[in-house]
Design goal:
single chain; Rossmann fold; 9 strands; VWFA domain-containing protein
Length: 299
């Protein structure tokens, strides 16, 4: 009888042992799949080519706005290549691209931007390609800004419409870690997209902030009570991470920076974006670590 009970107990223990082993294998496999997906980067850069980069309208003796942008893009590119080089060649499956909204009228700029859609996978990955990405991005983006400044035809920035109609299709892929870098002074304005719904709008300008009397000490109370902000976009973007760079508030209102960030924070949260940061314009040398830490997930 004792032997029978012992055999049964041993059998049950073996069953439990192998069940646990299989469960652990399954969990390890699921974790590996998740980690694999998070290791595939899909980085998009949205550039605001409005008159904020104009040397005539917004000269900056320390460093011009367009030069700061180029410095930020350089840091993004370097983070991307650092990520690629940390992977084995056969594991590489990553993308980086650059967008404008609206697209500039200059065909040369649009042509160059297409060359900046880089997709690297196990079939085309090579040391030569990986080593060329930073130089390609630096030279091509410099050409874009130089052409835009030379044209001197700034048609505005329609970031609201980009989120409304393009982000989900163009910046989000299911099996990637999706990151959107936005280079903007924080203001949004495009002649063709001026929508207002009560105190909500598709645009934000210094004039609108002044008009809404969000330039006094109790701006936050008024902002929340009277429901100011961008018009919500009914899209779940929880699988998108956003880094906004270059916030440059008007100096006429001491509360302007906080108001701009309140608009953006409320809007991004409404789209269920969990991981985002909003940073002021600063010298590229000061922003380099912030940008790379965000992209490479360094705490």
């Amino acid at each position: 009888m004792k032997n029978t009970l012992l055999k049964i107990s041993m059998s049950l223990l073996l069953v439990l042992f192998f069940s646990c082993k299989e469960e652990n294998k399954k969990e390890a496999k699921e974790t590996a799949v998740k980690n694999s997906v998070s290791e595939n980067y899909n980085i998009s850069i949205l550039v605001d080519l409005s008159d904020r980069i104009s040397l005539k309208k917004n000269p900056n003796p320390t460093m011009e706005i367009y030069q700061r942008d180029l410095g930020y893009i350089k840091s993004v590119s370097e983070a991307f290549t650092e990520h690629l080089k940390s992977k084995r060649m056969r594991q590489i499956n990553d993308k980086m691209q650059l967008f404008f909204n609206p697209e500039p009228e200059n065909p040369e700029i649009n042509s160059i931007s297409k060359e900046l859609r880089i997709s690297v996978d196990k079939d085309n990955a090579s040391k030569k390609l990986l080593n060329s990405i930073n130089d390609t991005y630096s030279s091509k983006t410099a050409s874009i800004y130089e052409s835009a400044i030379k044209d001197d035809k700034y048609i505005g920035s329609d970031i609201w419409n980009f989120f409304d109609s393009k982000v989900k299709d163009q910046c989000i892929d299911q099996d990637f870690r999706n990151i959107l870098i936005i280079l903007t002074d924080g203001y949004i304005f495009y002649e063709g997209t001026q929508i207002k719904e009560g105190n909500l709008s598709s645009y934000l300008t210094p004039q609108l902030i002044k008009q809404n009397i969000l330039n006094t000490n109790d701006w936050q109370k008024k902002f929340e009570k009277e429901n100011f902000g961008f018009i919500p976009i009914n899209t779940d973007l929880s699988n998108l991470e956003v880094l906004v760079l270059g916030i440059n508030p008007s100096k006429n209102n001491p509360f302007e920076e906080k108001v701009i960030k309140a608009y953006w924070t409320k809007w991004l949260l409404e789209m269920k974006i969990k991981h985002f940061e909003i940073k002021n314009a600063d010298l590229p040398s000061n922003m380099d670590k912030i940008i790379k830490d965000f992209i490479l997930k360094k705490e």
